[in-house]
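Supplementary Data S3. Sequence and structure tokens for construct A.
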Amino acid sequence: MGVKSMKRILLFCTSSLTLCSAPAFAQRTAEAADQAQTSVAENSGEIVVTATRSAQVVSRVPISISAYNQASLDKTGVRDVAGIVAQTPGLVFQTTSRATNIAIRGISSTAGAATTGIYIDDTPIQIRSLGYGGGNAYPIIFDLDRVEVLRGPQGTLFGAGSEGGTVRFITPKPDMTRQSGYLRSELAFTESGAPSYEAGAALGGPLVADKIAYRASGYYRRNGGYVDRRNFDTKATVSHNDNWDRSYAGRLALAFAPSETLTITPSIFYQNTFSHGSSFYWDSLSDLDAHRYINDQPGAEPSHDEFYLPALNIDYDMGPMRLVANASYFDRSTRNTVDYTTLNQSLFTGISLPSIPGQHAESNYSNTQKNYTGELRLQSNDADARLRWVVGGFWSRNRQTAQQQVADTYFPTYILSTFGAPYTAIFGQSLVDGHLIYDQVTRSVDSQYAIFGEATYRIVEGLSFTAGLRYSHTKFEISALAQGPVVGPKTIDSGVQKENPVTPKFGLNYQFNRNNLVYVTVSKGFRPGGYNPAVGLPCNGNLVSLGLTDRPPLYNSDSVWSYEVGSKNKAFGGKVQLAASAYQVDWNSIQQNVFLNSCGFQFTGNLGSVRSRGFDLDVQVNVTPNLLVSAAVGYTNATFQKTVFGGPSATSAVASAGDAVVAPPWTVALHGEYTRPVLDGHEGYLRLDYNFKSHQAAMTPGLNPANGIADPTIDNVPATHLLSLRTGLRLNGIDVSAFVNNLLDDNAWIARQRDNTRSTLYRSMSNRPRTWGMTASYRF
């Protein structure tokens, strides 16, 4: 009797409630599916992913996806999310002095809710932008089962926040059958900078055979700095290599199997990162070719980010169906300080640099997230079934607090010296608590309920149709307080915004044979809207210049429709593997910030539409048994479709028709590895990795007096070329290597900013200078 016939009989037994033994056939069905996928993966060297909520090798998944396991990330020396973005087509990592953001296929915005979903296992952890602070947390790249990057909207299975795509960090599950471990250490040196080093260990396996298992890991890393901070008045160095940072993380997961069909896995993930200073340097003081990165900010700019993530996963195998329940709590706290000395001086007086000996001002930001998340899924368990499906419900309640306090005790002095009048006569308000010119706190709650389903039906052998739908109810509540002389009388406001978005998905794919798949997908994504708290009295002039009498109280969700066609192919016995996709994404009613520069406030509006077109290409070629080369190429052409103004009387447009979205058109990652036997059975290898990003097609986000979108004095971000070299030996799980990162010492700036339109001071950030070192790892 064939396997398919047996599965049909077992399915019939279940549905008709006969006396068949559910636990026995449930285990065999699940094991057969897992073993089939594992067998395919082992034979092809592919990674098994769960992007569709069921386990499949990546070449069989009809969406555009890049996947990396820990071993492949170690080969390229990836230590953080920026390294993943660098080698993934269609992705861009955007950095400012206070936040980071991932753009996928040109879909990115620093306003409102997130456009990219960030997941640790089944927990979404992305943050909403409240005011000027915040930025996503990303887990450290150590002891991960894999990372999945899903390009295009994932609105059906992953919901809000996955408008442009989703990045999933999947942690290892405790293994009930065998012990395993992973050790890694590294020592590196940066030109004209401080050393970097790391150490990490992970261990897991059964505690009671087939009943209880564990996985535990711990990790520490310190990245040496290379930017020197000087005393502005004396020019003496205050802190050599000021921008050093350190991070440590730990995770513990336990798995309990009270029966052959039920597994209960509680886990906790903890991460703590600290940065001693900013990596931005002053352009006018630095000489990058001589490795002189100088920052004359009068004050230190430390930042601290810490989170806990306890979670519970329950997996109940019912034969033809599987019930999966997840519950988690994400508790994150961030604190960072930004030196505001030059910003305040230039904003209020037009003088770019401090004018008083010892002058100092600082802005202290704090952001907290307390996210409660629950999901329940029921899904088919037979990968060979004609109809495969998943249905589920999702609930989340995300509480967020953002606070900013700007302390400037020199404010009364330089206002008096510039204008010849006390600051109280000009601003009408005293310093808050004797030292704050601005005090703002915002609290919000994002609530979401959703039901979703997706099904794939095999019409004929090889040809399948997929349809999915998600219905959500979103509610955003916010309360805000702002006070201080620069914002006028105390402003207190609160509001609520609700919506019921629906996100469908349709797809058709044809598996010609085990080596060739083509697909077409149409899908929708969204992110929730919100409420704009009232702005301060001094903002009236800015509002009038835009033709507004008040800020718009509400902004609605924006959405994308994505149209994608792709193929995944193998040729020459699997020696050549290819994954390609072409897409068009239409993004409408985009949430964008409008800055009111003279008063420090901003509001968010639904402004404009964007059309993004492009393609992604991944190619891997085994040229010889000893030489493997691969290329990942992404092209994005994202442009606004019409001219958009922040108000009817705005003198400058937020964007004009044909303006490019802030993203480099081309991203290229090239990899090559040559191996050969050396020294009595050792495997020696030489590896080259090259990452290229073309110049940005749009101006850097910054300051515009009318709408606050772009600074015309800052050019587009230039192209970057990062070449790395690694050589080493492998033997029985041990890998010892020497490497050079940024071999060409590319120092082109990747971010540039100035305080405001009145300032002549520019700051920039570049990639880490040439760095060399050694890595040792052991996997068993």
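Construct B, processed identically:
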Amino acid sequence: MLLKGDHGITEIPSDRWNAEAFYSAEGKPGTMNTTMAGFLNAPSSFDHEFFGIAPHDALEMDPQQRLLLQASWRAIEDAAIDPASLAGSRTSVHVGIMSSEWAVLHMADYAEITPRRGTGNGYHMAANRISYHLDLKGPSVAVDTACSSSLVAVHLAIAALSAGDCDLAIAAGVNIILTPALSIFYTQAGLSAPDGECKPFSAHANGIGRGEGVGVVVLRRLSDAIAHKQPIYAVIEGSAVSHDGRSNGVTAPNRWSQQQVIGNAYARAGVRPAEVNFVEAHGTGTTLGDMIEVQALGAVHAGEREQPCALGSVKGNIGHTEGAAGIAGLIKTCLALDRRILPPSRHSNEENADLRLDQHGLWLARLPMRLPAEGTVRGAVSSFGLGGTNSHLVLATPPPADRRPERGGVGVLTVSAGTVTALRRNLASIAEMIDREPSERLPQICHSTNLVKTSLKHRWALPAWNREKLKADLRAQIADPRIPTGSGYATPKVIFLFTGPGAQYPRMTRALYDNLPAYRDRFDEVDSAMRPHFGRSIASLVIDDMYPDGVSVHDPALAQPALFAVGYALGATLRDLGVWPEAMLGYGTGEYAAACLAGVLPLSAACEIVVALAASTQKLTDYGAMVAVEATAAQVKPHIDAEPLVTIAGYNGPRDLVISGDTDAVARVTGALREAGVATKPVLGTPAMHSPLMRPVVAEFSRAADAVAAYRPVVPIASTLHGRLITDGLDSAYWVEQITSPVRFDAALSAVRELGPTHLIEVGPAPTTLDLVRRADPDHEMTVLTPCPGETAAGHEVAEVLAALYRDGLTPRWQRLYTKQQQMPWRLPPYVFDDHAASPVTAVQQASTEGLPAASATESVVERTLAALAEVGGYSTDDLVMDARLLDDLGYDSLTLIRLSDRLTTLLRIDGPMDLSELPQLETVKDVVSYVSARHDAS
């Protein structure tokens, strides 16, 4: 709008007041000379559910408080910060506000004053509401210096940051026109423009045109913003505040004081006037005000510059927003510096010749003006209060930051919202952004959503590696009437399953290595740890497929170290990404990776014994064979009883066994089983583990295992040797016995099932262990996740795992998913709030507080309790669900609980008042219903 030189001046909306009743072109006493001003479209709209405010409370809140809450949330998001992450922080709030017409309208009827109406009004509450609902612990201050209020609020926020009172500051301004009072005042004082438009420094300037709006900026120390890679609009280099002192009248501006505050701001910024490219002036369009302001600016700028300083005022576009005027000018200045283009000053086609702008080193920007593309560009902002309080700020473009996107990579796009309906709206908003942005920006956008859009109740996430696919997936999700979401209140219980022998294949996890920096780092770590014991790079074998002639990944001497390396690297990667398991279960070689990640074995020691095991088995004259069979132990036992060199090596499920032993003997057993209709499958890449053939290995392996110290696990391990959870250290005897004894996977799985897991993750190159789980318990309800699905892995599967876990309540360590360049925050569309119409801006729709009709004897206690809950909050009973939280979801604060206690006592005919000390302990609707039911039964 600013670049086009447009404006937002309209007729007074019909829901404000009867404009004609107070209008006269002559400005007769008690009237205003215009019916035009700059009005917001829907100032009564407020998403009370989002902030956990009950409908009755929302009805009686000053619309200025409603606007500030929503605008503050959006401004914090724009700073690449999750607003919920500020809870408990030293964040300050400074709000400029000069009118409280809501209080004028609603606090004069003394008989109707309620607790809600009291807390819904007052300057202090404009700031305190923000601090309360975001749980901010820094200073919380409302500032009224009339028209300069919000720029003075910025100055005070800067002071709080400088003094160390806060680490981040929210500075705001707000103005809503609810009565004709100030319009009449401006008319009677000769200050009001008949057409309702400010015409700053124009030959046609004839007074003030009013406007309303809300603006919020987020401030922090430059060093902190740079350290957090935040997008910076501008840097405030200096600010100053002063007062006019005595002048021609308490409302008359003082040129000398304005000149002094401008000079003070420049001095604090350490800049010369010639270094300031433009000034966003107070510029009300009054003859006296414009003249004095130009003289004050000229005293600073004239004769100091080769090129005149550009001059303008946003009031020409949106009107004089009074308490929000300073923040409006500041936001325009920040946008101009950020985009290095200065919007034109509306009504500047014919400047006021009496101002002699050129002689004062000034000129009006008639067209959009490109600011220098390189180097530091500066702008300044003035705001002067009706009572004489002046403020001036000097701003500059921020230090250059390398925000170039980086091609390639995988991310997770996250969106969260207060309701499923709101989630759909916000998904659509993000989808529109992705349509506009180039594909190489996708990882930065994903990381930014992880920073900003993750903390609300209803969660949605999708892995993103291809822009066109993501766009298609987004459209499908938005159109889906059953959009799948998760709850931020859930806590997934994850079990890691580490893959065992037979899952190896050439170039396994190569796609992960190429696309996921965290996995690459962890695989390089295990490669370095294994090299002294293995004698060469395991990465050259696993990732690059560079094997010696005649050797493959299925050779036992290579398969076991390779599987361990992949299991360790993938498990460590998931842990780095914030996925912490409740327990770990490893199959065969996978148990070494589980023990290492559980802290039982240091990485170097684990590498040493895995390589030792592989080297020992390589010396066997007969590797033997392992075969998986779909049969019961009773079916298999008659066949192996006749073969002393064959044994059951693994009990994976009721009809899921592994036999192991001498090659010929195993072939005879499997042949007999196949004749009996039993399905069999050879296990590749492993000797006959857990069989008599491993006895020659024991002595040599024992020497290596004895040299390794063992520690207590920090995460429980489900032992496949004992078939139970292990919380003690696993000594060398355990590992020696493990290679000769059968694997009791079924018992170990039962042990971890007793922990109540919600998610199983296969940590390895293929989902072979998950296949065992499916066969053992096909009806289980656990979510199974596969970060590497096998040879078809494309490298984005870990992102899919994180997306699923996030939807189910986990908050990952997102930064480990991205490179440093991909972690550069990118500005996202702000949260799209619900457009509930809280109330007309001029009248409270007061709900009855006298109670519902007397409850009939046939109504249940539950029904009457829900009716009382609905009444005191202003809900319908259909709005109440049993798991809704009284404070966070329904906004029932201490005052509401008092009313609830009184209402329940009457409605349920309970003898004596209810115990108020117990009510705050009741967190949900269900808690209240249960409590009241118990009291009712007892009475």
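Residues 53 and 891 are 4 Å apart (CA to CA). The longest strand covers residues 235-243.
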